[in-house]
Amino acid sequence: MPRRSRSQHLGVSASAGGAVACACAASATFLGGWLAGGAGIDVPWAPTWDLRLAFELDGLAALYGLLAAGIGVLVFVYASAYVPRHLADQGRSRREEARLHAAMVLFLVSMLGLTTAQDLILLFVFWDLTAVASWLLIGFDRRNRDARLSALMALLVTAISAVLMLIGILMLRVEYATTQLPELFAVARPSTTVSAAVGLIAVAALAKSAQVPFHFWLPRAMAAPTPVSAYLHSAAMVAAGVFLLSRIHPLIALDADLLDGLLVVGFASMAVGGVLALAADGLKRLLAYSTISQYGYVVTMLGVGGSSGAAAASFYVLAHALAKSALFMTAGTVTAATGAKSLRDTGGLARAMPLLAIASAAAVAAIAALPLTIGFFKDELFFKAALERGDVVAALAVAGAALTFAYMMRFWSGIFLGAPRAAPQPVERRLVWPVVLLAGLVLIGGIVVAPFAGLARDAAAATHAGAVKLDVAYHLDARAENLMALAAYTLGLLVLALRPVLEASLGLVERVGNRFGPERAYGVSLRGLNRISDRLHAVEVRDLRARVAAVIVPAAVLVAVGVAFTPTAGSYRIGNVLAADAPLVATLAVCALAAVAVTAPRRHLSLALTLSAVGFALATAYSLMDAPDVALVAVLIETIFALLFVGVFALLPGDVLRREAQLRVHRSRTVRDIVVATLSGVVTMLVVWAAFSRPQPDAAMAERHLELADDAHGKDVVTVILADFRGLDTLVEVTVVAVAMIGVSMLLALRARA
Amino acid sequence: MNLLFALVIGVLFGSGVFLLLKPDLFRVVAGLVLISNAANLTLMASGLTRGLAPIGRAAGDERVADPLVQAMTLTALVIGFAVTALLLGLSVSVYRSRHSVDLDELSRQQAADAVRREAREAPHDEEHELDESDEQRVAYHEAPT
Question: Which of A136, A221, A577, A583 lies at a C-alpha separation of 20 to 30 Å from A502?
Answer without folding.
Answer: A221
